[in-house]
Amino acid sequence: MNVLLIGGGGREHALAWKIAQSPRLRTLYCAPGNGGMGAVGACVGLDGMDGTAVEAFVRAHGIDLVVVGPEGPLVAGLSDRLRQGGVAVFGPSQAAAAIEGSKVFMKELCTRHRIPTAAYQVFQDPQQAMEYVRAQGVPIVVKASGLAAGKGVVVCHTLDEAQAAIQSILVERVFGAAGENLVVEGFLRGEELSFLALVDGKEILPLAGCQDHKAVGEGDRGANTGGMGAYSPTPLLTPELQERVMAQVMRPLVAAMAAEGFPYRGVLYAGLMIDAGQVQVLEFNARFGDPETQPLLMRMRSDLLPLLLACATGSLRGMTIDWDPRPALCVCMVAGGYPGAYRSGLPIAGLQAAAHQPDVEIFHAGTRRQGEQVVTAGGRVLGVTALGATVAAAQQRAYEVVQGIQWEEVYYRRDIGYRAVQREQARHE
Ligand code: AMP
Ligand code: GLY
For residue 11, which of 164, 282, 293, 307 is within the disulfide window of CB 3.0 to 4.6 Å? Predict the structure, then answer.
């Protein structure tokens, strides 16, 4: 098969690395790829947001399957356009991708189908939003309804913070049209779980459990990022909790989307808050998580390509996934300043010496090649993922490799996986 993979982040490098291992693959094209993906596929200067160009490429190169990595092209309707032309696509339609692209749509859908999520109200008027915040009290959560690269959500602990968030989203429009509607919702306590499943419109095949660290600072403090590190499996996801998530969230949602005329095909990612075994939905994503995909795919023993194709063609029924029982843990190395302003174009040292170590993969995110040199080209630059006999062992292995890689102003959290490591230690005491 010839496969075109859209995207160029850490998630896409992990997908490309895994797809490239498939005996069924002939050629893998990555559009646009990054400074690392050239090792596993052919990087082509093609923009996933340019549907006309993607369609022309698919025809010219005999592409059998298009795998869409990021949310942008999905929400813009790339899958619909390609499917109308008879091309197999891994990724939901525009209507189904609204589950991520519009928090208003997602909250309304959940409410209609009694899927547990925080109480909320939608506002266009800043005064009315602030009145509601005052009436509800803090802590409270203020969200831009549209896509904002994981940065459109502010957890507010004071009225001043809420006022500032409302001002920047609704009035200053820092997220542009994504901030036309503002969702204000109740603050949920608990621990976050990333629950991903492959879906073919009807059938649901859950992936292994994982957790990510969204906050930029150690101890999960500071601003939210796209994700600073992740691990799989997580002791949080017991078999009982898995069944509860399937019964209360995944099955009702997938059935509702099919019944309402926009069946979901692709990977459905539920961001959940778990409190004393109770499940609440924080968000849905219409794509693989990043960095979650990096540890997940390190653990996946099955061939990924037939699974992606089965989602695209509605034939997931009866398929299973074989997982490496060992935990995998990913540490994101980011540009100093991220998720705020940061510098790009800084040469990365130590990559070659760090490469080709057993049970470790270095997935590139924001990198590009400048001759022989790899330089930084984004906020999240690299993800180092290691397998280990325990989470603690995977963590230690990942950090050994991280410490050998440097650039000016590199930053990473030193505590990725701390909760799982604590749980492991508690079990052994
Ligand atoms: P979202 O993009 O909606 O998942 O929000 C990003 C992050 O903000 C989540 O991963 C949580 O860490 C936090 N968050 C979002 N909604 C809530 C909520 N209702 N209560 C507490 N934290 C939240
Ligand atoms: N790691 C969070 C996300 O992919 O949205």
Answer: 293
CA pair distance 21, 190, nearest whole angstrom: 38
- Asked whether residue 238 is assigned to any structural domain, the reply reads yes
For atom 9 of ligand 1, which residue has the closest CA?
A: 282
Check whether residue 152 and residue 80 sit in a common domain: no
Q: Which domain holds residue 342?
A: 328-427
* 308 and 197 part of one domain: yes
C-alpha of residue 272 to centroid of ligand 1, in Å: 9
Residue 224: band (very low, low, confident or very high) from pLDDT cuts 50, 70, 90: confident
Instruction: Give me the pLDDT at residue 223, please.
Output: 87
Residue 4: the pLDDT is 98
**Residue 138 covered by a domain:** yes
| Nearest ligand 2 atom, CA 150 | 5
Nearest atom of ligand 2 to the alpha carbon of 230 = 1
Residues 196 and 176 in one domain: no
Q: Is the shortest distance between the CB of 225 and ligand 2 below 6 Å? A: no
Q: What number does the ligand 1 atom closest to the CA of 185 have?
A: 19
- Distance, in Å, from the CA atom of 278 to the CA atom of 95, rounded to the nearest integer, reads 29
For 320-370, the pLDDT digits (tens) are 999 999 999 999 999 999 999 999 999 999 999 999 899 999 999 999 999
Residues 250, 334: one domain? no
E-strand stretches of 207-364: 211-212, 215-217, 221-224, 229-232, 265-275, 278-285, 328-335, 360-364
pLDDT of residue 150: 73
Beta-carbon contacts of 239 under 8 Å, excluding residues fewer than 6 positions away, are none
Among 155, 169, 220, 221, residue to substitute to test ligand 1 (most atoms within 8 Å of Cβ): 155
Looking up residue 156, the CATH number of its domain turns out to be: 3.30.1490.20
Alpha carbon of 143 to ligand 1 centroid (Å): 9
